[in-house]
Design brief:
It contains four helices and five strands; from the N terminus they run E-H-H-E-E-H-E-E-H. Strand 4 and strand 5 form a beta hairpin. The longest helix is centred in the first third of the chain and has 21 residues. The protein is globular, with a radius of gyration of 14 Å.
Length: about 120
């Protein structure tokens, strides 16, 4: 089934170094705390969590407005919670037709959002 969606990927960069410097338990607790905070913003802005991929979340929204609002709020929230100066939040957004398969989304908008997340600084 094809649908028009706004896709947002949010990735915590620098977490691999955090695991090395602080240890597994401490780093995982920090990453989980940050991702939980970001996830709550998705739900507050009418979005859905599609999946977690390590220190990254894939989300979808029915409107671009909700997606962009969430991205802005994520950056502000991340900066306010940040306790490790070596961590950063990279966000990529794609908009377009997506296909649904087993609670996952596929399509050019998903690929675009994933790509932009990896080039975002």
């Amino acid at each position: 089934m094809k649908q028009l969606k706004a896709i947002l990927f949010a990735d915590i960069s620098g977490s691999s170094a955090l695991y090395k410097s602080t240890g597994n338990q401490s780093a995982k607790a920090m990453v989980d705390y940050l991702l939980d905070s970001l996830t709550s913003l998705v739900f507050e802005n009418n979005g859905q969590i599609i999946k977690n991929i390590g220190d990254e979340i894939m989300t979808s929204f029915d409107t671009c407005q909700d997606c962009i609002k969430t991205a802005n709020e994520m950056q502000l929230k991340f900066c306010s919670l940040l306790q490790q100066p070596d961590l950063a939040l990279s966000i990529g957004i794609g908009v377009g037709e997506v296909s649904t398969d087993k609670n996952d989304l596929f399509g050019e908008a998903v690929n675009d959002a994933a790509h932009l997340t990896h080039v975002a600084k």
